[in-house]
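Before a colleague's protein record goes any further, I have to sign it off. What it holds is a sequence and that sequence's fold in token form. Would you go through it and say whether the fold makes sense for this chain? The record follows directly below this note.
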Amino acid sequence: MTTLENLYHGNINPCESEKLLNNHEYKKLIELTAQAQEKFAATLTEEQKKLFDNYIMNSEELSVIINEEIFKEGYRLATQIMIECI
């Protein structure tokens, strides 16, 4: 299959980069963030936990939107560079 076909069929997922998943610093920061979140959440009332959960969900959605736009802009830029090389 071509790269484009693999991308279409879901065999390539740019969000699951092996380099990122194998990055020691990334893994450590994920672990530290999860620990801090658990400790912080343990100090909250039920109402505060709901607000915090909403904050986390909204932050994650925002991050997805930002990363998607960055990916698209990078793709546009790479395509423009390829066109200019012709």
Q: What stands out?
A: The radius of gyration is 19 Å. The longest helix spans residues 46-85. The helical segments are 3-8, 18-21, 24-42, 46-85.
